[in-house]
């Protein structure tokens, strides 16, 4: 393949570049999935922590390479399962987690230094992450060995989904609390999954999905910088979650455009050294 890049059109490298090179239009790794397969994780969680744990063990035994936790609506809204507003919703669209004991049961027998976990949780992300890290400690796993993601994207909750608890100001403080804490103590943890998926499902076009998602991303970066964090301390652990609809050409173009735009935003607007 190297020979294909001997005579590149003028400006090609600046506009597209090779895979693994800025602006990452063609991907962030030089050989992409040929060297590093995608993590396979089925979004799963229902009923009690024990039942969801049994499901996770089954999925891992079948070859799944990571976990993706679905929480019920009371958990997503920070409500205990015995709260009056939780009636009819406990364990219905995800697993109910309210205590450290619940989290222990959810990951019983699952080595948290060997499996990465994505948790789709936003407003109470800090609390769920704290419970997860306590379970890792009890397993004898140091925080620097723990890997995974919390969604932690509160801005899209206000206009595309709805599971917010606090006003925007305090919510953004919690988001940046996680940025700072993980940069110092949990270096392998993705501190946010800036989400276009929900925006698209709420009616946006592919172009609007990129626009709103990157606007949210810029807001998070600005909030972290105002907090006093350095961009290269937290930016490498910002992740994105986009929809993948049926028009493969439009979707491929969307992903390529999103990578290139974000790389340029981080380098040109925020001064990131490794965008």
TrEMBL record:
<feature type="domain" description="Methylmalonyl-CoA mutase alpha/beta chain catalytic">
    <location>
        <begin position="12"/>
        <end position="275"/>
    </location>
</feature>
<dbReference type="InterPro" id="IPR006098">
    <property type="entry name" value="MMCoA_mutase_a_cat"/>
</dbReference>
<dbReference type="GO" id="GO:0004494">
    <property type="term" value="F:methylmalonyl-CoA mutase activity"/>
</dbReference>
<protein>
    <submittedName>
        <fullName>Methylmalonyl-CoA mutase</fullName>
    </submittedName>
</protein>
<dbReference type="Pfam" id="PF01642">
    <property type="entry name" value="MM_CoA_mutase"/>
</dbReference>
<dbReference type="InterPro" id="IPR006099">
    <property type="entry name" value="MeMalonylCoA_mutase_a/b_cat"/>
</dbReference>
<keyword id="KW-0413">Isomerase</keyword>
<dbReference type="InterPro" id="IPR016176">
    <property type="entry name" value="Cbl-dep_enz_cat"/>
</dbReference>
<dbReference type="GO" id="GO:0031419">
    <property type="term" value="F:cobalamin binding"/>
</dbReference>
